[in-house]
Predict the structure.
Amino acid sequence: MELNTEILETTAKIQENYPELTKFADVMTIPVTEAPEINTKSLKEYNDSLQAMATGYANSSKKYIVARVGL
């Protein structure tokens, strides 16, 4: 799968499943420098960071829901 398509799909899934995280996706960008280098490696790292954020959030949300239900 093309990396740009994968990033779009990851972002769409975050917006659909965890809309509250979209405010954080905006700050998780490729580092800005005087001459930013956008390449396959930086795009993959960006996509990986989006996926890690969503996975971490999903895991912590499930634990919170289970803990709250168990009260």
